[in-house]
Amino acid sequence: MSTKGYAFDNASEQAVSHHDALADLLDGSTRELIGELTELDGKRCLEVAAGAGSIAAWLAERAAEVVATDIAPQHIPARARLTVRRHDIVVDEPPGLFDLVHARLLLGHLPGREEALRRLVAAVADGGVLLVGEFAPAPGNFVTYAPEEATADVLTRYLAAHTAALVAAGYDLAWPQRAPAAFVAAGLAEVAFRVRGGSWRGGGPGCRLLRASIPQLRPALLAQGLTEADQGAAIEALGDPRVIVNGFHFIQVSGRAAGRRGAA
């Protein structure tokens, strides 16, 4: 995935914590939906922007072949039937045809998301599935409960700065809602989406993800007016199990290809 417009870095000190939190937060729903969409036995799978490779490793235990790509693939583990490649979906063509193509928390960040989607669609073999997952802000107030008004205030200001920093880096907040129509326009059939949301408690996977993101976004958050002291207070609050916030919605969009040759 192209680093232009992408706010997070696999080389950062927080990358492991970031990926661990993502896996704890999202892998269950991702695995569940993949299981509903396709049988994996004997199939060829492509995981794009694989991060630490938790889904790629899970796929490799079940599918015939898995290719996991990232522009910085150093965190992807070695596994039987798993091939790791350095690859940028914005500028590089996919490495063949696959029965399942999956990308999570990728397209919304990319300035070239339409071209990246075209490449993802082109990688899906006849009858195969494309599945992407994206975060979208939840409606309503971010802070559901905080033990002190000052804690609620700093968390509210943090989320505003976090969102503004991602938008300034190129994140498209409307992309998750547009994705189903983009799938249809790209020629995919059986397009559907699933939305998951709910509360995140301090110290839980969602809040751990936000805590890991703050040091990575430090300069951008400062540019949005969130001081060093504010950032430290937000990190502390997000680790407090008394805190409850309205977590991001996770939107998974799927579509099926038809009229193409099969995977190699």
From TrEMBL:
Q: Which InterPro entries match?
A: SAM-dependent_MTases_sf (IPR029063)
Q: Tell me which UniProt keywords the record has, alphabetically.
A: Methyltransferase, Transferase
What GO MF terms are annotated?
methyltransferase activity
Against Pfam families, the record matches this protein to: Methyltransf_23
Q: Which GO BP terms sit in this record?
A: methylation
Q: Does the keyword Transferase apply?
A: yes
Q: In its keyword annotation, does this UniProt entry include Nuclease?
A: no
* UniProt protein name: Methyltransferase domain-containing protein
